[in-house]
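Subject: mismatched residue count in predicted assembly?

I count 347 residues in my input, but I want to confirm that the predicted structure covers every chain. Input:
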Amino acid sequence: MSLRIEVLSGLGGKAPAAILVEAKGKRLLLDAGGALHPGQSNEWAAGLDVDAVLITHDHIDHIGGVTALPGELPLYCTSPVAAALPPGRDWRPLPERGECRIAGIPVTTGQAGHSLGGVWLHLGVAGGVFYSGDACLESLLLPFDEPPPARVALLDASYGIYDVPQAQCREAIARRLSEPRVLPVPASGRALEMALWLDTLAPRLGITWDLDSVCRKGLEALLELPRSLRRVGGDAAIRQLLDAPRPTSPSLWLVADRDDDPHDWPAHRLLHTGYLTPRRQRQRVAGEVDWQRWNVHLRLSHLRALVRQLGARQVVPLFTTDVREVNELLMTPSGLMMATEGSDAAG
Ligand SMILES: [Zn+2]
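Triage response: the counts match. Full output below for your records.
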C-alpha cells in the first residue's frame, strides 16, 4: 500500500503542527496549528487540498490554523476540543478513546495525557501510522492510553533530549513559591493538575493560593467527562478544591495564560512553566520573569519506551531542533531504522 507522509510544519523546531498523510488515495491533515507568537511563519495551509482534518487538542499550535482552512472541509475532534474552534465552525466527533473511519481510513484514538479532551491518532494503514499530538506520560490527572503497534511514529519531541522526571520539576517549582507568584498556564492542560498539586502543597508551605475562573471551569469540565478519561482517585480532591472558600489576596495565583506581562502583576512575580515565546525569553534574560519547567510533553525516556512499545521502524521527532540527537538516542540494539531530517517517510 502506498503511504506518503509530509510534515508541512512542525519539523526542526517548536512550530505549528500540520502533517499530511496520504493513503488509499485519500489525504488527511493531522492538526492545523497556528503561530505560537507574533511573527512566527505559518504558511503551511496555502494551496492545501485534503479530504479531512483531524485535530488532536485545543492548544494554539495544533488548532489555531483552522481559520486558514475552507469552512466546508470536514473537521474531526473530540467535544472538549470543539469548544476552542472558531464560532460556528462545523465539526464531526472524534472518539476520546476508540475507533472510527475517516475518508475510508481506519482511525484509532486514545488519551494523550496532555490536555482536556486531547488525543493521539493511529491510522490503520501500511503497518500503522502513529501521531502522538502533544503527549505526556506524567500527568497526575490525565491518562495516557497505550496505542496499537505502528510502523511509523510521529512523536512529540518538544523537549528534545531533556529527561528530568516530573518529581524534580515539582520540587524546583515549590522552592520558588516563598515569594508572591503568578503562574500563567494553558487552561486545558497543566492548569488542572497544577491546581490539584498546589492545593496539597500550599498548606504545607504556609501560603495562600487561588485560581482564576478559567482554570476553575477547566476543572469543572474535567469532572463532566466520563470517569474513564481521568486517572482514578482525583475526583474527591477536585470537588474539595472547587468547594473550598478562597482567600481574598492570595500570595500565589494560578491563571489561564493571557500573555501576562510583569506590569500586569505589580505585587507578584511571574513564574512560567512551559514554552517561552521570544518576548518572554528576553524577559527571562533581563531578570523580569522566572522559568521552571513542569513536564507536559514526552521526555527522552518516555519517547524511547513509546518507540519500543509501538515497534516503530521509522520515527520522526517533531517540534524540536534536536532531530538528529533525539534520533540517535532513540536507536536501539535491534537496529531500529530511524528517519533522518527528511520530512517524507515513504513506503
Ligand atoms: Zn499542547
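The chain has nine helices and 17 strands. Marking this ticket as 'not a bug'.
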